[in-house]
Amino acid sequence: MILSGKSRVAGVMGWPVGHSRSPRLHGFWLQQYGIDGAYVPLPVPPDRIEPAIRALPALGLAGCNVTVPHKEAAFRLVDLLDPAAKRIGAVNTIVVRPDGSLEGRNTDAFGFRENLRDGAPGWDPAAGPAVVVGAGGAARAVAVALLDSGVPELRLVNRTRARAEELAADLGPGVPVRVIPWEWRASALADAGLLVNTTTQGMAGQPALDLPLAGLPPAAVVTDIVYTPLLTPLLKQAKERGNPVVDGLGMLLHQARPGFQAWFGLAPKVTPELRRFVLEGL
Ligand code: ATR
C-alpha cells in the first residue's frame, strides 16, 4: 500500500521493540483489506514514555499498542481506562479519541479467551478448576479472562508465592481463587479442567516448565502463552498423553483485533493465512 496524506497511522511502543510481531501482523491486515494506513514500530526508552504517550494526539496518530516494559506506565498516563485495563492494571492498546484524549484498553484477556475458543471449542469452563502457572503481567490477564469465563476455581501456582498472593488479592474478595505452593504444583492438577502456562519457561532457549502432568485429567485442556516454539515442551508432553492442547500464537493474533478495528475502522479476521504469515516471520 502506498501511503497518502490521509493515511491513518498507529504503531507499537516498546523497548526494545525490534522483536515485536505486531507490525507484521497489522501490516498483513492493512494490505489484505486495502486500507490507507500504516502500523510502525515506535522504539521508546523507559525515560521517554511519558512524552511519547502525550505526543500521540499531537502527532495525529490513531493510537498504538504498548508492550514490554511500558504497559504499567501507559496505565498511569492515559485519560480513561476500559474495565479490563482497570482490572489487569496494565494497558496494551491506546486509542486517541476525537477530542484528543487517550483511552487505555487491555485486550490480552480478550485475546486469551478468543484463542481458547478457536483452539478448544469443546472446553467447558465449568468442567473443573483452572490452574494458572505464573504470576506476572500475562498471568493477570489470563486470570481475569478465566474468572469472566466462569471457572469454578482458579488455582494460582507461582515459584515466588508472594507474587501469587498479591495477584489473588488484586483479583478481589469473593472470587474463587486459591494459591497453591510451588512444591505442591503437581497435585494442583488433580480434577483440573484447564492448565495454562504464563511463565517464560519452555520458550526457545529457556528450560522447560518443571511440571509433571501425571495427575492431570485426560480431558483437561493445556495451553501455553509462549509461541516460540509453537509446540512447547509442556504442550508436547500434554499432546503425547492425549490432552487437547492450544498453542499461544492465537492469543497474539486475537489481542490485536480490537486495536486494529478502533484505529482503522474495520474488524479484522484471524485466518489460517494470517497465522502462516506471522509464523513465517518468527
Ligand atoms: P510477564 O509479565 O510477561 O508475565 P514476568 O512478570 O517476568 O513476565 O513473569 C514471569 C513469570 O515466569 C513469573 O511468574 C516467574 O515466577 P517468579 O514470580 O517466581 O519470578 C515465572 N518464572 C520465570 N522463571 C521461572 C523459573 N525458572 N521457574 C518457574 N517460574 C519462573
TrEMBL record:
Q: Which residues form the Quinate/shikimate 5-dehydrogenase/glutamyl-tRNA reductase domain?
A: 130-199
Under Pfam families, the record lists: Shikimate_DH, Shikimate_dh_N
Q: Where does NADP(+) bind?
A: 134-138, 158-163, 225, 248
User: Start and end of every Shikimate dehydrogenase substrate binding N-terminal domain?
Assistant: 12-94
Q: Name the pathway.
A: Metabolic intermediate biosynthesis; chorismate biosynthesis; chorismate from D-erythrose 4-phosphate and phosphoenolpyruvate: step 4/7
Q: How does it assemble?
A: Homodimer.
Q: What does this protein do?
A: Involved in the biosynthesis of the chorismate, which leads to the biosynthesis of aromatic amino acids. Catalyzes the reversible NADPH linked reduction of 3-dehydroshikimate (DHSA) to yield shikimate (SA).
Write down what this protein is called.
Shikimate dehydrogenase (NADP(+))
What does UniProt list as this organism's lineage? Bacteria, Pseudomonadati, Pseudomonadota, Alphaproteobacteria, Rhodospirillales
